[in-house]
Amino acid sequence: MDMVRSEGLMHEYAVRGDDGEVTQRIRALDHVDLSVQAGEFIAVLGHNGSGKSTFAKHVNALLFPDGGTLWVDGMDTKEEDRVWEIRQKAGMVFQNPDNQIIASVVEEDVAFGPENLGVEPTKIRTDVEDSLRAVNMLDYRSHSPNKLSGGQKQRVAIAGVLAMKPKCIVLDEPTAMLDPSGRQEVMRTIQRLNKEDNITILHITHYMEEAVQADRVVVMDHGKVVLNGTPREVFSQVETIKEIGLDVPQMTELAYRLRQEGLEVPADILTVEEMVDALCRLK
Amino acid sequence: MLRDITIGQYYPVDSVIHRLDPRTKIIGTIVYIIALFLVKNLLGFGIAIIALAALISLSKVPFRYIVRGLKTIVIILLFTVLLNMFLTKGDPLIHFWIFTITRQGIYTAGFMGLRLILLIIGSSLMTLTTTPIQLTDGIESLLRPLKKIKVPAHDIAMMMSIALRFIPILLEETDKIMKAQMARGADFESGNLLQRAKSMVPILVPLFISAFRRADELATAMEARCYRGDVGRTRMKELHYGRRDAVAYLILLLFVGGLYASRYLPAVSQLLHMIL
């Protein structure tokens, strides 16, 4: 079954002049057709203003379609009385860890979601413990979020979403403000949730190395889906990706250049190991 | 430099006072403050001091730590004492130039000073033994009956807890902005008061813009986690009164009764005056 499915999804922002009149309408999403299977790990790529964050907010019903339809777990996001159900099913993690942690104690923050849903206090407690254990932060339950590292804060934010028992988690550039080790912590957590708990992941990112880990990569540009396929399929289209102004993974780039120089290496190399393999097989 | 400011400093030890329900402590503190203004003589103050000393020793918070809180109000304290001393009319004791110190003046000044000191120590004992979250929970729960007259109890408590969460973040940000402006040659240290105040503008403007942006993002994040006010909301940690709270209320009642009685025992207090 499709976890998320959009058909002709449109979203427009109005740009207002000094007098408040609408001078221009910018189409952030332009007829987006996309479906995400339950249990899939999808990476969404695109540079700033490509519409990828707007799409993420639609999945969480924080924005509503100006045209077309979006279904989340079978629910139409236009149905206003199901907004809370949609937000519970599709949790969202944002870029800045500081601006999404509400309480001044880790476990209180994780409890925030279930508290809003009206879950029984004893049940909240076990859910909070389970969620913190799932992101490996149980030891920090009574700490203040201010004393945690960026990666730890982001894991707390993920736990906060997990405690609401979602089927799908949308992560809007969760690693953009983290250092490399924090980025790794978060990626490992997301991977585990996807593989072990079968949670659908929509991971929006700038980093190609992260996109490589996904089952499927979607590249967006000017509100449209430009490329959609496995990481191998997508990144082998080096020219299209460069045209949009994005990078390809380092090894794919190297393979691309070697091929231009006439070396017979596959175009869809993603990792260093594959490159070493391919190079050893030459001659 | 800004990080030295501590708000709602909590002293983490385990004691009977720490384990009391926050509502008990809030009500107790309010009653204690009101009771202090009922006190008219030395006997009353004696009772208050003994009660406070007992509470402090029960709370296991070092006395030195509590007294530190008095430093911030030394100036107000001196001001109050001096004004009371010189401006109270009565039987003159000492007279020089335009100043007259009366016997009543000394009494009122002394009482006022003592009252202020007891008030500050008493209320800081509450913040030292209660975590900010417990405090906001307590306030929310105490304000709940007022909801019938449209007091937004939940919203007030939510605002307080978010403020507590963001104070350290905004302080850090202020520090960063100051350093950034100093790196570009801004001068915050020299000049007169007006110039210094003016030099704060390049700090405040970016700070406010960033605070608004944070507020916007936080609101979105809260909505994404299904926040819709206190409609249908439960709490993980619910407040429960225990037996020790009942005991605390009983002691509070005795304390207030004792203080009230002290007003009508001039004979005893006269005696105390003679001894002291």
TrEMBL record, chain A:
GO MF term set: ATP binding; ATP hydrolysis activity; ATPase-coupled transmembrane transporter activity
Cited SMART domains: AAA
A single Gene Ontology CC term: ATP-binding cassette (ABC) transporter complex
Location relative to the cell: Cell membrane
Pfam families linked to this entry: ABC_tran
Entry keywords, A to Z: ATP-binding, Cell membrane, Membrane, Nucleotide-binding, Translocase, Transport
Gene3D superfamilies: P-loop containing nucleotide triphosphate hydrolases
CDD domains: ABC_cobalt_CbiO_domain1
Top-level division of the source organism's lineage: Bacteria
Main location: membrane
Residue ranges constituting the ABC transporter domain according to the UniProt record: 4-247
Lipid bilayer topology: Peripheral membrane protein
Family, per entry: Belongs to the ABC transporter superfamily.
Protein name per Swiss-Prot or TrEMBL: Energy-coupling factor transporter ATPase
TrEMBL record, chain B:
Function, as annotated: Transmembrane (T) component of an energy-coupling factor (ECF) ABC-transporter complex. Unlike classic ABC transporters this ECF transporter provides the energy necessary to transport a number of different substrates.
GO molecular function: transmembrane transporter activity
Statement: the UniProt record of this protein carries the keyword Transmembrane: yes
Principal location class: membrane
PANTHER family named among the record's database cross-references: SLL0384 PROTEIN
InterPro entries tied to this protein: ABC/ECF_trnsptr_transmembrane, ECF_transporter_component, EcfT
Compartments where found: Cell membrane
Name under which the protein is recorded: Energy-coupling factor transporter transmembrane protein EcfT
GO CC terms in record: plasma membrane
Quaternary organization: Forms a stable energy-coupling factor (ECF) transporter complex composed of 2 membrane-embedded substrate-binding proteins (S component), 2 ATP-binding proteins (A component) and 2 transmembrane proteins (T component).
Family stated for the protein in its record: Belongs to the energy-coupling factor EcfT family.
Record carries keyword Coiled coil: no
Keyword vocabulary terms for this entry: Cell membrane, Membrane, Transmembrane, Transmembrane helix, Transport
